[in-house]
Amino acid sequence: MGALSHIRVLDLSRVLAGPWCTQNLADLGADVIKVERPGAGDDTRHWGPPFAKDPHGQETTESAYFICINRNKRSITVDISKPEGQDIIRQLAKDSDVVIENYKVGDLAKYGLDYESLKKVKSDLIYCSITGFGQNGPYAHRPGYDFIIQGMGGFMSVTGEADDFPGASPQKAGVAVADIFTGMYATTAILAAVVHRDQTGQGQYIDMALLDTQVAVMANVASAYLCSDQIPRRWGNASPIIVPYQTFPTADGWMIVGVGNDGQFKHFVTVGGEAHLADNPLYLTNPLRVENRKSLIPLLESMTKQKTKSEWIALLEQANVPCGPINNFQEVFENEQVKARGIQIEVPHPTTGTMKLVSSPMRLSETPVEVRMPPPTLGQHTDDILRERLNLDTQAIKALHNKGII
């Protein structure tokens, strides 16, 4: 049994931040019911291509985006704009420990599904709202999108090639980091609230905002500004305080070299056949290398181009110089360490036959994470949930279907 197998979660969220959070809870054993719109479902069901393929190699309607954030959940379709649909949600909330939603501020209040309304039917309910900007402040009613938040929260101001590099410009991350980090923080906050409830019997409201999270995860960069009043700049793949600590071209691709001390620098240039650089008075110490990076880096790049990526990594690992490849995703999933850790898994699925997933990185010795269910098809568990949680019979469920409520 999972660590959270005693927890029931009602998931009213969609897209990424909320579903990322509820997948974490589901992976840890929670019973997560994902509420979706009849006929359409979560927007991400339609975000493709790519879509998963069936055993004959034909594309299904299962989008890669939806697949990555919805395993271990059950799907129920409910039209919450109708009173009968709202009543279903209230009954499900009464039987749940946690409700999570990412509607615009105030939207669920008009349906009587906000925290103040639902805590009347379950006093110890834990209710988590995820929005772009939080429940208060001048931006509270604005829609929040990850890309915009990355810009507003400072991330893009320090991401991308350095200003003095040709073609330099601010860049977003390759994945939606504001959404994902917000989902992770929401997971932590919900677990803290569960512990508090178990100790005191009190539920509570959790207000998560993408902008709050984006600023928070700027970590040392934000702290450097607060301590110095100096606006951090973009350094591309280089470090402002350690040299050489960046990407380097090789004869057949790119690699990362992270020289953390003077000894490692000497080993780096020695295996590259340029040992004299370690004795050059301009590059003897890290502060000197930082000061003279403009003359040093072209010399190092000329050196690294003389060998292939695999040759360099073998030499540097033997010399105890921190390094690594920049893998494409074929190389990622073929990596021996990735294989040894079982990061790629396959699970049965009703439309694709089998489905490839990325496993949870959480490794618990006594309550291990397991994939109990693949990402659900739209409304796959609607009838089962209504029988199990609301004790509805076949005739009552059929009536709801006929009315378009479910």
Walk me through what this model shows:
- The protein is of the alpha/beta class and 406 residues long.
- It folds into two domains: 8-217 and 343-403, Rossmann fold (3-Layer(aba) Sandwich); 245-332, formyl-coa transferase, domain 3 (2-Layer Sandwich), CATH 3.30.1540.10.
- Helix content is 37%, strand content 17%.
- The strands form four sheets. The chain has a six-stranded parallel sheet with strand order 5-2-1-6-7-8, with helices on both faces.
- It is elongated and about 85 Å long.
- The mean pLDDT is 96.
Can you give me a brief rundown of this structure?
The protein is of the alpha/beta class.
Largest sheet: 6 strands, parallel
CATH class of the largest domain: Alpha Beta
* Unreliably modeled segments: none
CATH topology of the largest domain: Rossmann fold
Count of helix runs? 17
Instruction: Please indicate the percent range of residues in DSSP E strands (runs of 2 or more).
Output: 15-25%
Inertia-based shape: elongated
Q: For the CA atoms, what is the radius of gyration? A: 26 Å
Structural class designation = alpha/beta
Q: What fraction, in percent, of the residue positions are helical?
A: 25-40%
N/C terminus separation = 31 Å
- Order of H and E elements: EHEEEHEHEHEHHEHHEEHHHHHEHHEEHH
Mean pLDDT: 96
Number of domains: 2
Number of strands: 13
Q: Specify the CATH homologous superfamily of the largest domain.
A: Crotonobetainyl-coa:carnitine coa-transferase, domain 1
CATH architecture classification of the largest domain: 3-Layer(aba) Sandwich
Placed side by side, the strands forming the largest sheet appear as: 5-2-1-6-7-8
